[in-house]
Amino acid sequence: MPTSNQLALCLRRREQGESDLIVTLLTREAGKLAAVARGVRKPKSRQAPVCQLFALSRVQLATRGDHGGLPVLAQAQLEETFYDLRADLDRSARAAYLVELADLAIPDHEPQPTLFDLLLASLAALTTALEPRVVMHSFELQLLAELGLEPVLDRCAHCALPLGDEAALFDAPAGGLIHARHGGSAQATSVSPEAVRAMRRLLRPDAYELDLTTLRMPPMLARPVAAALRSAVRCFLDAEPRALAIIEQLADEPEP
Ligand SMILES: [Zn+2]
Questions:
Q1: Where in the chain is the domain with CATH 2.40.50.140?
Q2: What is the 159 CA–ligand 1 centroid distance (Å)?
Q3: For residue 184, how far is its CA from the centre of ligand 1 (angstroms)?
Q4: CA of 161 to the centre of ligand 1 (A)
Q5: C-alpha of residue 231 to centroid of ligand 1, in Å
Q6: Where do the CATH 1.20.1440.120 domains begin and end in the chain?
Q7: 12-40 pLDDT tens trace
Q8: Per-residue pLDDT for 65 more than 70?
Q9: Hey, what CATH topology would domain 85-251 get?
Q10: Which residues lie at CB < 5 A from ion ligand 1?
Q11: For residue 69, is pLDDT > 90?
Q12: Which string of b and e fits 108-129 if b means at least 16 CB within 10 Å?
């Protein structure tokens, strides 16, 4: 029996056999799941666009078949390719990072409508954002929070007192921000009071009525935030997303 139509974002794809793909989809109702897309690597396959990374489609899955128990992509209608996102190297690398992070962080077969909506909204925001890294860092923080892994940003994770204007470190093994005077682990990185404020705002953009597509983040602020969130992802999710290396390579190119 095919399941009802549901919205799905393509998080990952890997080749199977001569012409099939196994795609990892994040569906709004059924959570993350893998499915077999038959024959999509053949020329002129109508389902091929659906199986592009971060494509949004309406899919119907069939559970019958002999594909190791995986459901089969029975029907799929492309809703959004994020074409403008794909045309820009930096934005598409960041979109690839978002879906990789979602794939690494979200458990299988658990409905995650909030995370689905967050990922979809973040991909849309990435398309037009003045500074794509703002959208990416807000996504990292909101994803962690939604999974119950929110770093401590509103006090010292070591002594629980307010951070005040004291020098602070982001120390992922300690749980988040700490006063610099406590020391900190080898992974701890310095964060300025401005970077602390920026992270708090990016964690709850709605509460601060932020429009992530128009927000600017100068490199002086973005660098410590990126370092802190990278260590949070590494520590809390035990993950080293491959797309990060590509984003960094692109950023290392000399400014025009
Ligand atoms: Zn403290």
A1: 6-81
A2: 4
A3: 10
A4: 6
A5: 19
A6: 85-251
A7: 999 999 999 999 999 999 999 999 999 99
A8: no
A9: de novo design (two linked rop proteins) (1.20.1440)
A10: 156, 158-159, 179
A11: no
A12: eeeebeebbebbbebbbbbbeb
